[in-house]
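Onboarding guide, step 5: your first structure request.
Type a short instruction followed by the sequence, for example:

Predict the 3D structure of this protein.
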Amino acid sequence: IHNMFKHIFTGLESRWAKELEIIREQYESEPVTFTDEPCVLHWPEAMEILKGEGFDMGDEMGDLTGAMELALGAAVKEKYGADFFMLDKYPADIRPFYTM
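The system replies with structure tokens like these:
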């Protein structure tokens, strides 16, 4: 999966560079960054990161809010240098894996 997404995003950057340059004049963004190997974060580590970011995680069995997801993404980028990561061991009792 990691290599597939890496291929998609790097391909977009190379094949659509001119169009992305135009879009980025209006909407600030940067190319997606990847680690060489898949960046897999396990649920307990994500909880520790979010606690470190000042979030009250309670019993650690609550769903992530949008703000938590953004903070986790920023922390992963800073710690691992990656925009793209997988959150593994997401408790099934919180929400089914197939929902967004």
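Each response can be followed by summary notes, for example: The beta strands are 40-42, 86-88.
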